[in-house]
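Replying to the earlier thread about multi-chain prediction with a worked example.

Input:
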Amino acid sequence: MSKKSPSTRIADFGARAGQSVDVQGWVTHVRSSGKIAFVVIRDGSGTAQVVLVKTEVQPEVWERFGGLTQESCVRLTGVVREDKRSPGGFELAASDLEILGTSPQDYPIQPKEHGVDFLLDHRHLWLRSSRQRAIARVRHEIEQAIRDFFYERDFTLVDTPILTAAIGERSGLFATEYFDEGTAYLAQTGQLYGEAAAAALGKIYCFGPTFRAEKSKTRRHLSEFWMIEPEVAFNDSEDNMRLQEDFVSYIVARAVERRRPELEELERDISKLERIKPPFPRVDYSDAVKTLQAKGSSITWGDDLGAEDETLLVADYDTPIFVCNYPKEAKAFYMKENPADPRTVLCNDCLAPEGYGEIIGGSQREDDYDKLLARIHEEKLPVDAYGWYLDLRKYGTFVHSGFGLGLERTVSWVCGLPHLREAIAFPRMMNRLRP
RNA sequence: UGGGGUGUAGGUCAACUGGCAGACCGCCUGACUGUUAAUCAGGAAGUUGCAGGUUCGAAUCCUGCCGCCCCAGCCA
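Result:
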């Protein structure tokens, strides 16, 4: 490929009206009317219509145009001009066309309906479509908002390990051999390491991929997903929920503020997002059970909320809600016993509206050495593996709380996606390891 | 893992009670100087998921297997 002057981004067309520029990108569409042709190209910054007139270009340029196919990579030279008939308001009157990368005639993705399986098989190409680009940009904005939120509040980012010994959640683990140390497991959470870091730095968060080998095939589960887990020294469960509602509201507001065009591309009802403001309603677990029973659910005290129960409960609200203080048996061993009702623990789930379900699980952590040890025994967990975790209660134990927010579930909710699989570039699910 | 559904052209789907394998989109060829998922004319394109069975005859009925989707459980 030849070296030429720096190319112009389509996003900058407005500032270059009347000037001659070079543009590099991929052909998304070709329309021809005999002696005039329209080529739509995409360069990552935007899409633009290019106009070629047969009588105004060299014969070989017109010839090359005839060879254009969907997703050909091209370099175009021409003058930017304003034109109401062009989709972006500007178009390029082309004088030269160079094909940088050809594309055969069998490009599989059409601007029409496709089945999910087909699209996921072609995920590497599907990403080029406008809807997928919009989702990627919203996800990016949310990730940046997350980092900004914690940075502004003086949290320290701590990267926790992905390869771990058996520790953390109960459900399925991915295993791999680890030198002479036996089996290592892909991390399901960074929380326990986060607790250790909180005693060093006060306010911390970790943000990374987590792995669950659960054999679940639902619209709300991935085998590999990204989780944000803050942990704050001296926060109790109430402080924890205040942090959560501020955090979620900040993320949503940021997406609405800076990614409105993308949300419109996704046909998201933005008014529903604009209602997301703190405080979020708190519903005590025991009250939730009574409400659900009154609505006809078969739930009894002690059960975890099923998906149907969540939907039933959330139907009364148009903001996220907190369901607080679940029975001990339904929750993880590290959650702090509720002094007001020892059958329960100081915890909360945050349920998103519109049926998106649980986006956060959070709790105050058990800071009493003996009670924590007793819970480890009750759950029949290997005490040896938790020696270092118990040390956090042995050496200067402290009230602390934290939570985990599922990134893909949040992105799905903000974008209004029907399934989690579109919320990440290359989803990993039970039956999908490639591309 | 359990329950329900589904599998036909590159894609999305039709095909009545078992009776000639179809449509649209895309692609190819041609026409067209302002198209917006252009339009018009023509064309190519199939091991009906796989294996077996019933039948004069199977995309269609039966058995087994496989893939995928939805729901549930688990969770974020």
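The domain at 10-101 of chain A is CATH 2.40.50.140 (OB fold (Dihydrolipoamide Acetyltransferase, E2P)).

Feel free to reuse this layout for your own posts.
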